[in-house]
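Dear Dr. H.,

I hope your travels went smoothly. While you were away I took the liberty of generating a structure for the chain from your last submission, since the lab meeting agenda had it listed for discussion. I wanted you to have the full record in hand beforehand rather than looking at slides cold. The sequence, exactly as received, is reproduced here:
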Amino acid sequence: MATMYKRKFEVGQYALRVQRSPTGLGLFAHEPIKRGSCLIEYRGRSLSQKEQHTSRSKYLFEINKHKTIDGGVRTNTARYINHSCRPNCEIDIYKQRVYVLAKRNIKPGEELSYDYDTEYFDTYIKPKGCKCVACATATK
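The corresponding predicted structure, in token form, is as follows:
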């Protein structure tokens, strides 16, 4: 009998829910998730070159220098994943699609997070002060 192996970029059917978080709304795990699991795909409309420079969306995800997606639509549940300086998830881009993978084992009730990287962090988060759980506990 052949064993079926799950591909790295095959999104699992995890119980993820949008809930209130310390930084607004966040995406939370409602079941245990194993390290390396593909949790969700960050989806959105591809923007034209002009739209990339004129968009005011805070949900832009640059795939490469030629492709940016706007994940601002509410059907893109991955848009609710917040930044953390010590994230439990990481981003992997495969075939010009953005996937969120578990960087470590995640417990039920835990908020999902990834590092938003330098440009977004410096523009939107740093001026107001980072409010991620890692930074909030470090300042106490």
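Two observations you may find useful: The first strand starts at residue 16 and ends at 21. The helical segments are 49-54, 118-125, 133-138.

With kind regards,
E. W.
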